[in-house]
Amino acid sequence: MNILVCVKQVPDTNEIKIDPVTNTLVREGVPSIVNPFDGYALEAAARIKDKDPDTRIVVLSMGPKQAEAALRECLAIAADKAYLATDRAFGGSDTLATSYILSRAIKKVEELEGAKFDAIFCGKQAIDGDTAQVGPELAEHLNYPQVTYGLEAAVASDGLHVLREAEDGNEVIGVQFPCVVTFTKPSFDPRFPTIKRKMAARKAQITALTAADLTGIDLTRAGLKGSPTKVKRTFVPPRKQAGVVVKEETVEASAHRLFELLSKAHVI
Amino acid sequence: METKSKDLWVFLETNEDGTAQNIGIELLNPGRRLADKQGGKLVSVVVGFHTDASVKEASAHGADRVIVVDGAEFQRYTTDAYVTALAHLIEKYGPTSMLIGATPNGRDLGPRLSSRLGTGLTADCTALDIDDETGNIVWTRPAFGGNLMAVIMCPDHRPQLGTVRPGVFKKPEPGEAKAEVVKEDFHVPADQIRTKVLKTIREAAGELVDLEGADIIVSGGRGVGGPDGFKVVQDLADALGGTVGASRAAVDEGWISHSHQVGQTGKTVAPKLYIACGISGAIQHLAGMSSSDVIVAINKDFDAPIFGVADYGFVGNLFELVPALTAEIKKAKG
């Protein structure tokens, strides 16, 4: 089995702060992490490797040079090899342009690896953009079938059996190879890296892929100019007015008051 | 994609029995406004099996035209069947824009369709408008877990596609059904559907958790202290006819299943009333519920961030207040 896991380096939203004067996001000094959903995708690949040690796990990211840190973390956790698609021409890409570049990068990685990937795993969405678009868009560029909202994946004779979170429970989806699967949060915690793997990851060679390396890429479909959607502006949502604090003599009186307020607001 | 009309399409997702999902009807509300501004028709696109009830409902809720694709292969959603059918319809009729509900299936479908058509998609929108100058749709969506709103346009590609969060818009008032119904005889061969539903694991009837469709949600967090603590939460939810939600902390502790989780790694909800019991309000939780109409926070710590988004707050012991509130509601209902 050859599995490619796509990962994105994102700011840790736990640490996001709003500048009270300018009312904008403060990004300086915010630590970067591997997008948690991509971590679940990596864990799903690692669990396949637990059962079949011949499985090879390759990670790919697109971003600036500092995204190498995220790739090293993936190497420390479970990946065997890492590639970073990085070029100024990729900057400002929306999801469609990003997925297009990734699809070209995957072709290049397959060439360098000397083998095709059976499955491409992604996180359901990144916690900065929250779009959940890149996985399905990538699947379409590659013309592969897709399964989204995956929880677990098991290898079967004819492809993967993916446990998928559906609206009314879960379902098991059978999907042929090669395929794209996006993962959401499973019921278990992803593994931590071992010290030994961490040391090795620190020294690992990460192969950079620039626009010039991606044979046949159409750069009119990449970057800000190649993106069909344009961000016109961003704003911090207005804060709510301070709420009403209910505080009566007794708990029963408070409950009664709260009941009155909710009735008046026509919500009960 | 070539535009052939100024029409605005709304995708209507159907249930397995052919009835309409709420979101497909809700979207006819903003759809009407956008279609009128665009100067085109409001078209509901129904895909499913035995869809008569859905067609009627779309028609009664204001669609000018309903385009129907009906077939056994559409009974349960698959990416390949649905994307193939919708791409075919879009190429045939060339609408200017299309709204899709941001349900799990809608979020599976939307990006795949946009990639096939080579056009832009804006995900999870919470506000929609038309730019007076250019006539483009102005899509507003939250990012960074709701900490930042982005205003997005798709100026040079058609159709303009967007997914819209369920529960943001109310269903339009029903009226006389007068839509023109267009039945499209379109089928997707079985060998073009590359995924197969092998097994369906339904939550037991009593355990079915419909958070996204709930009008009232009562959620418990770390403050409920354990699985038994959820009993008071459940009692209040039962008295209100609501659904039980939970914070990640409570789910991670194993007190309640992940299907109840509200927040960034759980469900995004926007009920009329959200009551947070013993939830501090981590930013990931707020991201999943802060667009609720009315929020009540019950927490012993006055500094908990949940109070920052609450309309009504009670600082104190939830095990005293919640049962008292349940009693008040039961008393009022007789």
Any overview of this molecule?
The complex is a heterodimer of chains A (268) and B (334). Chain A is an alpha/beta fold and 268 residues long. Chain A folds into two domains: 2-221, Rossmann fold, CATH 3.40.50; 238-268. Chain A contains six helices and 15 strands. Chain A has helices at residues 36-51, 68-77, 95-113, 134-142, 195-203, 251-264; strands at 2-7, 9-11, 17-18, 25-26, 32-34, 56-62, 81-85, 119-123, 146-156, 159-166, 169-176, 179-183, 206-209, 230-235, 244-245. In chain A, 47% of the residues are buried. Chain B has 334 residues and is of the alpha/beta class. Chain B folds into two domains: 8-192, Rossmann fold (3-Layer(aba) Sandwich), CATH 3.40.50.620; 205-333, Rossmann fold (3-Layer(aba) Sandwich). The longest helix of chain B is centred in the last third of the chain and has 16 residues, at 318-333. Chain B has helices at 22-26, 28-38, 52-60, 79-93, 104-117, 230-240, 248-252, 283-289, 318-333; strands spanning 8-13, 42-48, 65-70, 97-101, 121-125, 127-130, 137-143, 148-153, 160-164, 180-184, 195-202, 216-220, 243-246, 273-277, 294-299, 312-315. Chains A and B meet through helix 3, helix 4, strand 9, strand 10 and strand 11 of A and helix 4, helix 5, strand 5, strand 7 and strand 8 of B. Strand 15 (244-245) of chain A pairs parallel with strand 16 (312-315) of chain B, so a sheet runs across the interface.
